[in-house]
Amino acid sequence: MAESESGRVTSGTRVGTVMDSLRERIASRSLMPGARVPSIRAMTDTLGVSKSTVVEAYDRLVAEGVIVARRGSGFFVSGHAPPLALADIGPRLDREVDPLWLTRQSLEAGAKVLKPGCGWVPSAWLPEDGVRRALRAVARDPQSLLTDYASPAGLPALRQQLAWRLAQHGVEAPPEQILLTDGGTHALDLVCRFLLEPGDTVLIDDPCYFNFQALLRAHRVHIVSVPYTPSGPDLTAFERALSEHRPRLYVTNSAIHNPTGATLAPAVAHRLLKLAGEHDLLIVEDDIFADLESEPAPRLAAFDGLARVVSIGSFSKTLSAAVRCGYIAARAEWIEPLIDLKLATSFGSGQLAASVVHRMLVDGTYRRHLESMRAKLADAMGETVRRLGNAGLAIWTRPRAGIFVWARLPGSLDAADIARHALADNVVFAPGNVFSASQSAAGFLRFNVSQCNRPKVYETLQRAMEACAAVDAKERARA
């Protein structure tokens, strides 16, 4: 029987599967301290294992102190709820390809490590000189608040600018319906705090941006994923999920979808909103890559008029990850309670960051930067798609803009194995199942075209593919 160094049974056995199932329920708070554990018969039926397997698993969990046995009553969760550990919630992944660990590797990597799997452009592609000029200008402006808290909704001048920019995408949101935040993740966190209760069901795309999953698990909600197509979510599966699970919320990117690079089709958007109305579904539309588009794609928030869609975004991917500035655009009556939540959890947002962003928007720096950046990305997209095709990968859909390409490996190669091999060569890839709640994307990798301009990326990919193919061949020969 397989055991870890700590003596805990691993999920490589039937007993370990039962134990992991209960540990995950306890870690995710679906079973709280003192709660009765499913009976031996119920667990046998649920997991399709023998009664003796469940008995042994429960005995081992009792020995570990995870559950307690009460004569004549059954088994119960013991002690207090453990500290929330996101790695213990959801699918069990090897640490090397766990989504949060992938982010750590990308953020902590030195200059020698290549990061074609990360989610941001190289620093050299961002307007560092423009940020410095804006900082100096803000510091010299006697009207700038450099030492005080920002107004609760955020810098009025920037909210006015954002209202104008949103209108370019068809989203009508006056400044009074816009709330500034410390980035896109802060925006999504506030919306989740406002709209969700623990135990609610939330729909996500499969695949989707992996931090959607991590943040939603932190809010202790039930996640249901719907397959994503090159034109948007699979509407048949979407409608079925609405009927079966009655979700409260759907979280998505409609323009420049992460990780696939796909764009929502107008017909799919209209049908999706009709289904949302029929099932009282709310939608969060993360529009963080909006400024990378050369031609605006359809927006759910534009078709819906912010009735049941909340639009969020930030400047982290296009201007500076260090200047934390994002926003929420929502229906008018939601702004005041969202401001209350913002004050309760962070007491405001960065006035200095907002002033810098506003300065760069109005002096033309940001516009000129975007023109240059879009041209670079278009060139990088073409080159990356070409080289991946030469390496034998199939492009899932050719993105119209943005930084991501979603590509399928040849044959039965597993992207997690490719990623492990590449790590040893100081290259960080992003395997597909990092983005898939259903773990159905084992054959895919997400590539960031802005980080794929070094020959070593493709050389490492080729070596990893050859090594994994050789291992697969040996295993087939043994079989």
Automatic annotation (TrEMBL):
GO molecular function: DNA binding; DNA-binding transcription factor activity; pyridoxal phosphate binding; transaminase activity
Gene3D superfamilies in the record: Aspartate Aminotransferase, domain 1, Type I PLP-dependent aspartate aminotransferase-like (Major domain), Winged helix-like DNA-binding domain superfamily/Winged helix DNA-binding domain
Domain HTH gntR-type stretches: 12-80
Domain of life the protein comes from: Bacteria
InterPro entries: Aminotransferase_I/II_large, HTH_trans_reg/aminotransferase, PyrdxlP-dep_Trfase, PyrdxlP-dep_Trfase_major, PyrdxlP-dep_Trfase_small, Tscrpt_reg_HTH_GntR, WH-like_DNA-bd_sf, WH_DNA-bd_sf
Keywords assigned by UniProt, alphabetized: Aminotransferase, DNA-binding, Pyridoxal phosphate, Transcription, Transcription regulation, Transferase
Family to which the UniProt record says this protein belongs: In the C-terminal section; belongs to the class-I pyridoxal-phosphate-dependent aminotransferase family.
PANTHER family attached to this UniProt entry: HTH-TYPE TRANSCRIPTIONAL REGULATORY PROTEIN GABR (PTHR46577), TRANSCRIPTIONAL REGULATORY PROTEIN (PTHR46577:SF2)
Name the record gives this protein: PLP-dependent aminotransferase family protein
Organism field: Paraburkholderia ginsengisoli
